[in-house]
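step=predict obj=TonB-dependent receptor n=831
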Amino acid sequence: MLAILLAGSAGPLGASTGAATAESADGQAVPDETIPEIIVYGERLFPDVQPERSLDEEAIESYGVGTIDELIANLQAEVGNDEDAPLLIVNGERLNDLSEIGEFPVEVLRNVQVLPRGSAVRLGGKSGQRVVSLALKKQVRTVTVSGSQKLATDGNWNATEGETIFTHIRGNTRANIGIRGRDEDRLLESDRGIVQPDPFLPYAAGGNVVGYPFIGGEIDPALSAIAGQIVTVTPVPAGASPTLAGFAANANVPAVTGLGRFRTLRPDSANYEFNGTANTRLAPWLTANAAVRVGRTTTDGIRGLASGLFVLPFDNPASPFSRDVGLLYYGDPLHYRGRRSGGDFNLTFNGTFGRWIGNLNARHSYSRDLSTNDVLVQSGAIPIADGTNPFAGAPALALTSSQASSRLRNSAAQASFTGPLATLPAGTVTATIEGRLASYRLRAKSSFLPGGSAATFNRNEQSVRGALDIPLTSSGGFLKQAGNTSATVEIGRTHFSDVGSLDRYALGLTWEPVAALRLRASIEQANGPPSAQILANPVIITPESRVFDPLTGETVDVTQITGGNPDLFAEKVRIKRLGALLRAVPRLNLQFNAEYTDTDRRNFVSALPEASAAVMLAFPDRFIRDANGVLTAIDLRPVNFDSEREKRFRWGFNLNTKLTNPPPPKNAEARKAPTLLQVSANHTVILSDEIRIRPGIDPVDLLGGGAIGIAGGRVRHQIDGTAAVTAGGLGARVGLLYRGASSLDTRIGGVSDSIRFSPLTIVNLRVYADARRFLKAQKWARGLRLSVDVVNLFNDRQRVRDSQGGVPLQYQPGYRDPLGRTIEFEIRKVF
């Protein structure tokens, strides 16, 4: 009976009844004589759980997205992004990864339901997980082709994307193949009018002359006499044989090269991906699902120009000077390039053994990353060779490329069994037992350090987990006056070969005194080591990285060090939650939700933020300064922060209702006739958020001006909302993101100051139209959809000001949001 229930097309929330039908590309039901009529009767897997979201085909269409993974991303943003991804079930059967279904077009869906937090335990998931249930159409055979062009209205940037998807569904057999490509243009700092900081030395593409060895001192008394003033810098004049008079013509007015044309805000990038998935029933009690994905991404950007100080001896035949001088030249652009390739293979078996459900998953993934940075071969003062005329052509600056690469391989196998353990007066206790084996191997190489470096990191894992879903009272039976009450218990242990054994536990209590109200309290604690990449990634040294120094108030170009840190400790996270869900007006599907979360993190791992006064004072060895106190290098490799304690409250509502009430639909076109209104809004209030960077140091209040990065302190208020209206193949969806004000404390010259970040409101708009709505008689218009997606409709950017009203260079609007408003035009055809 359980096997039949799992195969039912109505999904896990209800029984499947009715005659079998096939469906055309646009979802219109047509009789299919090859599929026998089947009527299934059975119990619901979730008879006492009502969904947080329930979407039919019209509601799914209102999101205007093309694939299932895009739809789920939108739903997660509405209900609140969780640390644990939702548990996915398709036609009642569990999937272990979104890749097994995510690339299917949304046209294959009959309905989608999102179940509240805590519901996943009954199907073998974790205590804090939600469930996303997808019910597919019985028969679909389509080819979906889409192409889009995205551009920034401020100009100088666009992206092109194309995708083709082949889909076949027939009962429990389904297959999907997708090919996707995306290409993005480079965006330069000059394209957004970025004001450049003054260079530490007056380098220029055409060259400048300065005193040597005392840069900033007088170049040559003879030159000063001709110019009538002491000359400390002068540009190199044109010609292969310049005279002192030629150098005096522009004395103390150095040549300037705008670096904005040689620095990228966003690099060139290209991404290509192939994915395929297939599912079939091997036996009445067993199904299999296989998924494969391979992809490649490349990037190419610029971080300015190579710069060099050349020493021209006074006795060089080309020199008109009576003493040695310095020549400051810019050379070729400094490129940084990245390449990532990889893929994964995922195989899942779902079986039924009496009243128990079994799930076996095997997964293998690999990735290869290669980073290349152009660096100067020589440093310091470079002598001009005897007999060489530097004015006949700019001296060459020799560049080489330093590389860092990593190869990661990950293999894992997981088996779980879920089923009835015992019967209590209020119902059946559901138990889950799960075991997992995994191995990681990361090989890293880097040529950025002298002599190069190479290392191999290996980790093996063995884990076991058990969970119980225990009914305590039942509205239809035991202590029915108390409504439905249930408890969840979860405990697990994982042994890591490099760390040892770490534990996890979770407890939850759910109470529904009436059908309209659901209350849940939970506590969970998990201990885990940093990932293999965080521990063992290769060292990368990037010159000319632009950062803000909160101790001086200056924006400077420094040498930046990134990579892994093998000396990190395991972190511990404890999360306490109280949540409520109220169903207020059934005809509007109006729901109110509220959740309080208290998160306590110990030894939490984070890449060292670029700059904040607190971080610089806590990790002085990571921020290197010269004799004048100018920041010259920063080491951003990850560290353990001592602790963080955050308390937040999130509340909101959503409704989903039809504004018209037409007669029951007879086909797909009739289903699209009603006018559907969807509204969702959530307000998050951060009640407190403090970080203790190191033991013995006062905590940093992120709501009171403290910060651990250049983005500023924590935003106390955040609002996210969407509203959509759809009817008859036409739709519009508006999204709202509001982020409140924040601040960043600085200590410029030993004096405390504060940088203010203004509130930010972003409005997004997505509209679409089915061509069939306007061209009903044209067959070619069937399945054709045109859409326009506008991000940041009003081109709003956050404003950042210091106490004097000025804008620090690192906080210019072009840095905060390089693209600004973007418009994407998409054409999509389902054949």
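step=describe
The domain at 2-137 is CATH 2.170.130 (Ferric Hydroxamate Uptake Protein; Chain A, domain 1).
step=end
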